[in-house]
Amino acid sequence: MNIIKSLEKRRTIYNLNNNLSVEEGRIFKLIEESTELIPDAFNMKSSRIIVATGDKQNKLWDNIYNVFKGEVSRERIDSFKAAYGTILYFYDNNVVKEIQNQFPLYKDSISKYAMQSAAMLQISIWSGLAELNIGASIQHYNPIIDNMVKEMFNLSESYILDAQMPFGGIVKPADMKEKEDISKRVKFVK
Ligand SMILES: Cc1cc2nc3c(=O)[nH]c(=O)nc-3n(C[C@H](O)[C@H](O)[C@H](O)COP(=O)(O)O)c2cc1C
């Protein structure tokens, strides 16, 4: 699929179920290969991913609901829990610190670069899932859930959570996107 077709196909899908149109292994391969191929500053390889499925997927969303003590609706949480799984995106701050020591001139930018690389990974996996007809959305319950997630998955203190991506079968596709006047945002100059 060419890049524009792929980007067109990627949408925020909230209405998901746990029926996959492909083998789970294809999704895991997509996630592993994307993580390997995505560029990152200083080639530091700071991105980390945990993919929760099955009982862990259910427990994750129940825990998120509990951490928010009723401030997020049960219905919304259940819509994410109904998905096949959730991809948790992190970067490892130990890697960032190591690179900061090596390149002190860039000290203040390196954590931003780690986030940028994580974002590149997110768009790639999100688009790759769409190509497989798997729906997904991106959620940010961090930083409120950070401690719970670290405890639940027994993670190092250095793991910084950046996003949660529930994915699964598409129950209801997204509405058509409105066309915009892109010349307001893009200029070509000579
Ligand atoms: C960096 C980033 C953060 C986002 N955070 C959330 C979020 O926390 N919750 C949510 O429901 N959608 C979130 N979204 C999804 C956007 O709302 C969505 O991409 C946008 O409305 C365009 O819709 P589309 O994804 O269908 O093209 C986020 C998207 C991006 C790129």
Keyphrases for this structure?
190 residues, alpha+beta, NADH Oxidase, 5-stranded antiparallel beta sheet, 7 helices, 43% helix
What is the structure about, briefly put?
The chain has one domain (3-171): NADH Oxidase (3-Layer(aba) Sandwich).
Task: Characterize the structure shown.
The protein is an alpha+beta fold and 190 residues long. It has a single domain, classed as NADH Oxidase (3-Layer(aba) Sandwich). 43% of the residues lie in helices and 18% in strands. It contains seven helices and five strands, in the order αβαβααβααβαβ. Strands 1, 2, 3, 4 and 5 form a five-stranded antiparallel beta sheet that branches. Bound molecules: flavin mononucleotide. The site of flavin mononucleotide (FMN) has 7 residues, from loops. Flavin mononucleotide binds next to loops.
